[in-house]
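Example 9 (inverse folding). The structure is encoded as follows.
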């Protein structure tokens, strides 16, 4: 092959082409698809990075004009052919550039880290004489040499610290030619697996056995179907994953386990390590680029065969992935909404299944309505686990907060919850109080005129943080002192509204001064490992009550927790999103699952102002199928996913009038070309957050069941808009089925 097909790393859609470059002779044997290279680009031949996507014998431009590849970044391909195929699919599916997809799949490039080691020089006559001479005298050099006679290279830093010497004797030995300095590679970010004890697998329950057999069958299949495991919390799903992985590893293939970042705890990882030891690695967002790069390298080289991590771990470069497990598959974090490509890890996993023939396993106590619908239609295989392994389900009680008001109880706690907490304290059992919100209060407003303190960059209200006595914008991070007088009317009556974890903590301290309390939310978990520290303290019984946000809603397994209070279930009911019902059902059931996980029976108290809401009612009865039946009927009637696709077009820019003008232009064009009303337009509206960092945001969402037609229509209309209007200062963001609109 004479030419390389190259995509370059300029993330602008105008240069999303494949360019041809000639291959210098010196690179002929090395170059192949998937290599990262440097190429001259543009009129001034600036050297930029690119990726070889294939080789060809015929170039699309004149031979005289063709430029040669400048240099190789690495000696090996950084992306496999299968994943180049994946990148091409993502490019089309998520409307973005090929190079941004490749960059999303591979880790950021960093320097590999190596460190100096000392080793014995290569064996020869002169060396043996020299060794004898050094060893005959009792010197520091002799002590260094004794360490090295075993044959292994030893890090210089070890030699110095073990022997308590400086570098001089080593330098002297190098000069004599007895030893030499070598550089060995070290991996950053390894999970320390050596401290975890091996465990033996338990005997499976009949339900677990059945689910395993379904997965085993799919593992044998040439075109496996995804398997959806619907099992209540504590029904033993993780044990099923472990068995399936064991089977996969025995056949020489590898496994990827996706878990939401917030359930990626020490406890979760240890369950995998206790079975598969140092074959396991972990990735998460707190790893730095070097650590991530090194763990990716270990996967690529086959040094590990199980990778656990959040969404992005789906791209772990195993040569032969056999299974991709997606735990808590309903979580919205599997969909990337911020950065391009705005991919969905579940869809990526299914594409990988097509490319590599691996099995996708989706697990959840509360499957997403879309996945359950697919299982119902037979696109997925469904396994249901009805029973908890320990056969206990908590008593769930709904408390009507309107009644509390009537009894002049204005506290955050109903009388029932207060009594239950008191009982638990007495019995020395633990309690979790759950609130899906962070900070002391949601907003600060003026009693006199009603003015709400807002961040002027983002058009969202400030959150008041009592700890630091500040108002903080949770979108751009801006923070100001609480004003003493209202900036609108000058009144001094400024009031803090709402309910936050800090406020719950205050009330708990007031009612139960003797209780030991821990709080876990956005503000207390900013430091590395603080998340884990809080959980460990709670597990070891150093606190009676854990107060927290959604971070504590899932994945945890504490045997002494027998009471869970959901302080304000309504918070998620009023999101203004078609998924509010689904989100509420999921939250309530996940939190309820925290209670009574071992021998002791658990209790859950749900406080709400809407006790008749169907998602709360079904969640309290642990009746997923009842909830699903009502929810899917609503989706069918209103034509929401899974019965359609939503395609969100967001325009942003600094000039508000211009953004609005472009948006109405776009909607005008969309109306014009929507001949048979095949497409439904929702909007235009300002985005939920109408301004971020001084960029105004307007959006329209287009609805159509046919994804291909939807894509073509939207892209066509955008092209028309660009022809007619100046969109230079406008950013266009496209998102297929966003998690929130
Ligand atoms: P899930 O992942 O569905 O929440 P887990 O796999 O964490 O459930 O199981 C819940 C608890 O039951 C865990 O403590 C686990 O060790 C235990 N367990 C799971 N399967 C079995 C089994 N077959 N026999 C005994 N204990 C089991
Ligand atoms: Zn005011
Ligand atoms: Zn802001």
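The amino acid assigned to each position is listed next.
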């Amino acid at each position: 092959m004479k030419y390389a097909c190259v995509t370059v790393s300029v993330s602008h859609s105008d240069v999303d082409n494949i360019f041809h470059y000639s291959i210098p002779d010196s690179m002929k044997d090395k170059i192949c698809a998937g290599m990262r290279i440097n190429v001259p680009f543009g009129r001034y031949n600036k050297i930029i990075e690119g990726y070889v996507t294939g080789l060809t014998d015929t170039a699309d431009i004149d031979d005289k004009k063709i430029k040669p590849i400048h240099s190789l970044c690495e000696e090996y391909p950084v992306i496999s052919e299968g994943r180049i195929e994946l990148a091409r699919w993502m490019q089309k599916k998520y409307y973005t550039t090929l190079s941004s997809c490749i960059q999303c799949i591979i880790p950021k490039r960093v320097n590999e880290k190596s460190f100096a080691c000392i080793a014995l020089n290569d064996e020869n006559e002169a060396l043996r004489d020299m060794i004898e001479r050094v060893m005959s005298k009792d010197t520091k050099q002799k002590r260094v040499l004794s360490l090295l006679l075993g044959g292994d290279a030893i890090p210089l830093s070890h030699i110095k610290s073990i022997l308590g010497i400086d570098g001089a004797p080593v330098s002297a030995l190098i000069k004599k030619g007895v030893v030499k300095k070598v550089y060995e590679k070290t991996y950053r970010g390894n999970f320390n697996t050596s401290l975890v004890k091996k465990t033996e697998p338990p005997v499976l329950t009949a339900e677990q056995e059945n689910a395993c057999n379904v997965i085993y069958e799919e593992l044998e299949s040439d075109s496996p179907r995804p398997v959806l495991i619907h099992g209540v919390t504590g029904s033993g799903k993780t044990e099923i994953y472990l068995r399936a992985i064991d089977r996969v590893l025995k056949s020489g293939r590898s496994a990827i386990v996706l878990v939401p970042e917030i359930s990626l705890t020490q406890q979760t990882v240890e369950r995998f390590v206790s079975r598969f030891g140092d074959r396991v690695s972990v990735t998460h967002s707190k790893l730095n680029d070097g650590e991530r790069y090194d763990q990716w390298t270990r996967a690529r080289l086959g040094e590990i065969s199980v990778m656990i991590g959040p969404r992005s771990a789906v791209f772990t470069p195993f040569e032969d992935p056999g299974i991709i497990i997606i735990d808590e598959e309903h979580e919205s974090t599997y969909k990337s909404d911020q950065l391009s490509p705005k991919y969905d890890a579940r869809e990526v996993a299914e594409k990988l299944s097509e490319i590599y023939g691996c099995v996708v396993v989706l697990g959840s106590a509360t499957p997403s309505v879309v996945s359950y619908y697919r299982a119902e239609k037979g696109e997925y295989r469904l396994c249901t686990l009805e029973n908890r392994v320990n056969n206990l389900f908590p008593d769930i009680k709904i408390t009507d907060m309107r009644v509390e008001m009537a009894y002049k109880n204005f506290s955050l706690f109903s009388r029932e919850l207060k009594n239950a907490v008191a009982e638990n304290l007495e019995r020395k059992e633990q309690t979790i109080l759950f609130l899906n919100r962070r900070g002391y209060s949601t907003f600060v407003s003026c009693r006199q005129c009603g003015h709400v303190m807002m961040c002027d960059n983002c058009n969202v209200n400030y959150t008041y943080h009592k700890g630091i006595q500040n108002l903080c914008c949770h979108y751009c991070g801006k923070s100001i002192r609480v004003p003493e007088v209202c900036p609108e009317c000058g009144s001094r009556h400024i009031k803090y509204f709402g309910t936050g974890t800090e406020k719950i903590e205050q009330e708990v301290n007031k009612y139960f001064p003797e209780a030991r309390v821990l709080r876990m939310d956005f503000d207390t978990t900013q430091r590395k490992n603080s998340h884990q520290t809080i959980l460990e303290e709670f597990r070891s019984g150093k606190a009676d009550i854990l107060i927290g946000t959604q971070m504590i809603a899932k994945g945890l397994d504490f045997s002494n927790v027998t009471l869970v209070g959901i302080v304000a279930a309504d918070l998620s009911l009023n999101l203004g999103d078609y998924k509010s019902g689904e989100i509420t059902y999921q939250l309530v059931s996940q939190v309820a699952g925290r209670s009574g996980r071992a021998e002791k029976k658990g209790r859950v108290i749900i406080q709400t102002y809407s006790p008749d809401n169907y998602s709360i009612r079904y969640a309290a009865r642990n009746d997923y199928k009842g909830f699903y039946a009502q929810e899917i009927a609503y989706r069918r009637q209103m034509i929401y996913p899974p019965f359609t696709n939503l395609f969100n077009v967001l325009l942003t820019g600094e000039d508000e009038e211009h953004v609005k003008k472009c948006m109405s232009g776009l909607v005008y064009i969309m109306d014009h070309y929507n001949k048979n009303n095949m497409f439904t337009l929702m909007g235009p509206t300002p985005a939920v957050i109408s301004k971020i960092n001084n960029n105004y945001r307007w959006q329209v969402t287009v609805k159509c069941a046919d994804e291909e037609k939807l894509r073509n229509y939207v892209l066509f209309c955008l092209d028309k808009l660009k022809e007619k209007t100046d969109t230079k200062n406008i950013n266009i963001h496209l998102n297929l089925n966003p998690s929130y609109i």
